[in-house]
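User: Quick sanity check before I run a bigger batch. Here is a single chain. Can you write out its predicted 3D structure?
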Amino acid sequence: MAKERYLVNRTFDEIQVGDSSTLQRTLQAEDVKIFAIMTGDVNPAVLDPGSAEGGQRQVIAHGMWSGSLISTVLGTQLPGPGTILIDQSLHFSRPVYIGDTLSVTVTVKKKFEHNQHIVLDCDCVNQDGLQTVRGSAEVLAPSQKVQRLQRIELPDIRIDDKVDRLARLKARVRDLDPIKVAVAHPCDNESLRGAIVSSEAGIIEPILVGPETIIRSLAKEHQLDVSHLRIVNALTSRDSAAIAISLVRSGDAEALMKGSLHTAELMDEVVSPNIGLRSKRVISHVFVLDVPAYPGPLLITDAIINFAPNLQEKADIVQNAINLAHAIGIPEPKVAILSALERIDSNLPSTIDAAALCKMAERGQIKGGLLDGPLAFDNAVSLLAAKTMGIKSKVAGQADILVVPNMDSGNMMARQLEYLAGALTAGIVLGAQAPIILTSRNDSAETRIASCVIASLVIQHKRALASLSANTNP
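Assistant: Done. Predicted structure follows.
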């Protein structure tokens, strides 16, 4: 235990030829990324398995990752604190792959009294006893003894790798047919880029609805290729919304996507009697978040459409979110009905609604999910918090869906997770005749792409249910 908490060194006079010290370390995927970030070495032969020579098709460590472990042994174990590296020579025998465990050993070979330099042999072998690195190091040994130096506690590092997370999400629809999407008024760079990149990835087949001259000019300015895409001319943003909705109603498109127009403009047309996309259910929005610190997708609803929903509206909001969870692969989502308290209090209406929603689920008025509430945010997402509060629940601490009391709380929660916790965010509206890809005008192209993936999963799930129904009811 002392060796873990404290550092000691060995002075030049204490060190004898033949003395040695060993460090063991297992290469993790995060180690490769952190080393690349720290050094700027993004050599594809290291980071991209497809670029590795010899067709290894495995991510390997940078060579100097092993070299840095040798420096670690020298600086913390033998000779230890106070050591200054003078010269180092290394030969790299074979690559180190993710999951390999290296034993790094330094052995004293020579001592020089006149300058207190020490030459050490350096050897790294993997878990199979195969040498990966060999070489030598010359150091200036410490002259002052360090008996008990407190080891510096380093912070945990978490890589916020949205690129990887988006790639994993896109991979879910890689082998599926693209869905046809009417894009209403893609008249800024991010909304147009999001539609085009999603098209190039095979996620959607967009129909661009808006002022054609503006769309083409914007595409040329930002070097976006729209030559192969259908463009339906519309003079104004409201015209764009109305025409895009008509394409969905006619079956030319399976989903609707918001461009650079205001959300209110689009939704006014969506809920318009006779020409909109209303269904019998309340229309609601769901944020789908990939939060680095959370073990699975986190759905938050409703943070965009319904300002202060009543109990029946909340029941539909919950059902919409459950149906979405099914579509993205969560068979029995755990639904936390949020409030500021985890106990029922007649002075706080959201706690009453939470209890009622849970009872509605027990009676079959809400189906397909496991509900609990009221729950505060902390004990909805943290098992430790739930245990501390004495809450025994299959939902608490591991919720898939967070149902918020009102739009204010939901919107702030989702945006905090996006901007302060590095969440990859997608947004979709459900309860209409077709899914609506609804993002903010300042959302990135990545958010729009992620939202397209979610819409594709919804459509594919809808197709699967329709096929199942047709087969069981010929």
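The domain at 281-431 is CATH 3.40.718.10 (Isopropylmalate Dehydrogenase).

User: Great, the batch can go ahead then.
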